[in-house]
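Re: How this chain folds, sequence and tokenised backbone to follow

Filed under: protein folding, tokenised backbone structure, sequence and structure records.

Contents: The amino acid chain and a row of whole-number tokens, matched residue for residue.

Body of memo: The sequence and its backbone structure tokens, given next.
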Amino acid sequence: AKHYKILDIIGEARDLGVENLRGSGTIAGETSRAYDETFTLTYVSGRTVGIGAYLVRLGQRTIQKGTNAPILLTGYSALNSLMGREVYTSNLQLGGTKVMYNNGVSHQCVRNDLEGVQSMIKWVSYVADRKGGALPFTALAAGDRIDRDVEFDPIKLGLSEFDPRHLLTGEEIETKEGEMGDTKWVSGFFDRGSFTEALAGWAKTVVIGRARLGGIPTGVIISETRTVEAKTPADPATPDSQERVWQQAGQVWFPDSGYKTAQAISDFNKEGLPLMLFANWRGFSGGQRDMFNEVLKYGSFIVDELVKYEQPVFVYIPPTGQLRGGAWVVVDPTINGEVMEMYADDNARGNVLEPPGAVSIKFRHKDVVAAARRVDHVLKNLYEKLKELADSPDEAKLIKKDIKEREEKILPVYQQIAIEFADLHDRPGRMMAKGVIRQIVSWKNSRRYFFNRLRRKLAENEVSKEIIKADPEITKLSQARLELQSWYEEVAANWDDDVAVYNWLSSEEGKQQLSSHITTLTGDSIAAQVMKLGQNDSNAVLKGLMGLINDLKSQNKNEERDALIQKLRAGVLLLN
């Protein structure tokens, strides 16, 4: 008798098996591509497990409900079964907002579905209706206007420590006059009530979000200036693990905040938003733990994302801000000169080292002593007396004592002078002289300046892209801008006037002139391409022209066909 051994069971219908994994892989790939190609946003309103959790992350932008909406790879009961003991008590312990909001997976956290829908609508309101489309303009809140000063100034308000968000949003402060509790709004840089923060629970030394400048949606990045607390929770699966809490200094990039900055830049670029980067960093944290935690890698991610950026990027060193060392390097406008520009406030600072550090290297103690002996009249006289008393050791000893006392008295003053001298090398005037910033923009006037600049750059880039499309020989925005500048200077001379250039670009007369120029440029470009093709194979060009004539005939475009033939005949006669 024959015996059969079952080797594989395929089944008659599709079942839970590898075919599901194939489908999950397909969905994952499509979601990843969707993030690059369009706007993606996920609202987690209930439990999402396995591939669902991966899809949340692959779509990047995530809003998570705070109750009963965990993001999981494996449920808590399955993990308990795997470990053979009751370790976890709920799915929220594994993937609730206390985990996912604090580790940067969830961008925003809401209490209920109503808040979730509101957050989604608000987020979408910052984004164009299609990729590459015009950004949506939103009217300003009542009482706010575009042409106004920025009033929240930490220097004038006498604030040594403040929430950097107030630079962006302004703040309600108590008035000195009137009844107790009376407040007034001190305006910030962006439109009132337009700033929406994201990823607030993670990497708190950097603040990122979206706001509007004169109604124009903008991505925002600013550094936290205060010391913040970071936490790593204890894992119940590891009995000897403990919650770890440590301090992170403000104005410093750490591994998590470097990654957060790069992630935000990537999101803003995909959303087609211009970027306003308020640069106030002293550098990167270079301790052993942070080097091990890949601060170097995540810092370089910032450069990678800026290189890819396609919309205007304004790097601005705000009042009391400083940009030094490696922190300057990763946001320098030469990284992507096509779209990046750098500016500084009157009270900003920038250099390799801070003044005390520069003095400790460039002007050491012996140099300070030498300067004091060269400049201080009392010391000079004492040293002259010392020379005269070479034969009187006792009197010379007293003079040396006087010299020592004098040096101890005046050296701290000279040290402060040296630090002030070093600080003078860090100021915006030197940045301008060296050409590393485009302009000094006072904080008070920054809102109106950057609104006019942004409006002009957006309109300019839109026309520049049409120029690139019209002429394949022009491949960069900078080349297209030179062409655009030559067209503008045919009718005006003030190319550096942002308001005048924007008015021309948006006027009916300007649009007609641009349309005429682009049509001419397109025709010249096609003619150049045909001539280049003819140099390679003139018979092929002739064959193509004959095919075009026949094609026009078959489409009943007789007028166009006759006009083309007439032009060809006229051209032949001219050649003869």
Notes: The longest helix spans residues 393-424. The mean pLDDT is 91. DSSP finds 22 helices and 20 strands in the chain.
